[in-house]
Specification:
Family: Belongs to the synaptotagmin family.
Radius of gyration: 31 Å
Order of helices and strands: HEEEEEHEEEEEEEEHEEHEH
Number of strands: 16
Strand content: 35-45%
Shape: extended
Protein name: Synaptotagmin-1 isoform X2
Organism: Salmo salar (Atlantic salmon)
Distance between the termini: 125 Å
Strand order of the largest sheet: 5-2-1-8
Keywords: Membrane, Repeat, Transmembrane, Transmembrane helix
Helix content: 10-25%
């Protein structure tokens, strides 16, 4: 026989052998599946189980919890009180929050604001490595009765992360016009999926702070920014950063970075040092603002944040970490807020100019 015929016969034999093996394997699998299906379900035997459930283990209002395919986002206990043109929002505690970190825990905090007039935003402290944080913090908003009836209070729960964007765990949205303000409202509610309708993404910025008390030097390093809002017609921006110090609500010192062309994710790595005494740093505000440069028209502000003695939330934490770790640079990412929102909180005044003495006009 020719050599090619021998090779062909040999290949056919191998192929038949493989087909037989596959057929036997498939038949065996099908049999085992049928056996599993025909097996009766095991019944749970409750005999011997001691103890009983009580209503003290169930949080108030747990009968309206969402089960099934909906993601469990946990629950929040809050309070509302309105009197003398002031709304006080209490963030009491949260329970059964989902784990957002690899270690099976979260670092939760709550952000509170009122829409549609989002003039002030408050944040609770961050509670490390817990799914059942107890906050017990209260925040006050000045709002008249007519505006109150058209407003919604938003309580948004986040998982804190120093070096990346904070994850939203869930939120509560409560329409204020439907409440009876003759008494204090306090109740548990399930957190729902956060709404993105009102969130304007302005971007994030990362910078480090370092303070050396012995030399009275405050060093601010603008590292980078990302996902900045597009300000130009071409869908990009020409961003730069202003670093401003305000002392006792008055503008004091200012420096700025170079301009980065046509990017929404600029990398700066530029350092600025200010001489600030320890007594002054107790009364200082640090304002970081990102701007879009334009050759022919006025530069536009993309977003701002401020840190210092009057800051709250993540900004306050970053400032406190800097002061508690002298001589050590502390870096952190921050979300940018609108200029109007930051300016309304700061209410900065221009520096007081020293008048001329003995000047003849």
């Amino acid at each position: 026989m020719p050599r090619w015929a021998i090779y062909t016969i040999f290949a056919v034999i191998i192929l038949l052998f493989l087909v037989c093996i596959i057929w036997v394997f498939v038949k065996y699998c099908c049999k085992s599946k049928k056996k599993r299906k025909n097996k009766p379900d095991h019944q749970i035997n409750l005999q011997g189980v001691t103890g009983s459930t009580t209503t003290s283990l169930v949080q108030p209002g747990s009968d309206d919890a969402n089960y099934g395919s909906a993601k469990n986002r946990g629950r929040l206990l809050y309070s509302l009180e309105y009197k003398a043109q002031e709304l006080t929002v209490g963030i009491k505690q949260a329970a059964a929050l989902p784990a957002m970190d690899l270690g099976g825990t979260s670092d939760p905090y709550v952000k509170v604001y009122i829409t549609p007039n989002k003039s002030k935003t408050f944040e609770t402290k961050v509670y490390r490595k817990t799914l059942n944080p107890v906050f017990n913090e209260h925040f006050t908003f000045e709002i008249d009765k007519a505006e109150l009836n058209e407003s919604t209070v938003v309580m948004k729960v986040f998982d804190f992360d120093r070096f990346s964007k904070h994850d939203v765990i869930g939120e509560l949205r409560l329409q204020l016009g439907t409440n009876d303000w003759n008494h204090v409202i306090e109740e548990w509610k399930n957190l729902s999926e956060p709404s993105k309708s009102e969130d304007i993404i302005l971007g994030e910025i990362c910078f480090s702070l370092r303070y050396v008390p012995t030399t009275s030097k405050l060093t601010v390093v603008i590292l980078e920014a990302k996902n900045l809002k597009s300000m130009d017609l071409g869908g990009s921006s020409d961003p730069y950063v202003k670093v401003q110090l305000a002392l006792d609500k008055k503008k004091w010192k200012r420096k700025k970075t170079s301009v980065k062309k046509s990017t929404q994710n600029p990398y700066f790595n530029e350092s600025f040092t200010f001489v600030v005494s320890f007594e002054q740093i107790q009364r200082l505000q640090l304002v970081i603002s990102v701007w879009d440069h334009d050759k022919f028209t006025r530069n536009d502000a993309i977003g701002k944040i401020f840190l210092g003695c009057d800051a709250t939330g993540n900004q306050q934490r970053h400032w406190a970490d800097m002061l508690s770790n002298p001589r050590k640079p502390v870096a952190q990412w921050h979300n940018l807020f609108s200029s109007e929102q930051v300016d309304s909180i700061l209410e900065l005044k221009h520096s007081v100019r020293i008048p001329f003495i003995n000047k003849n006009f």
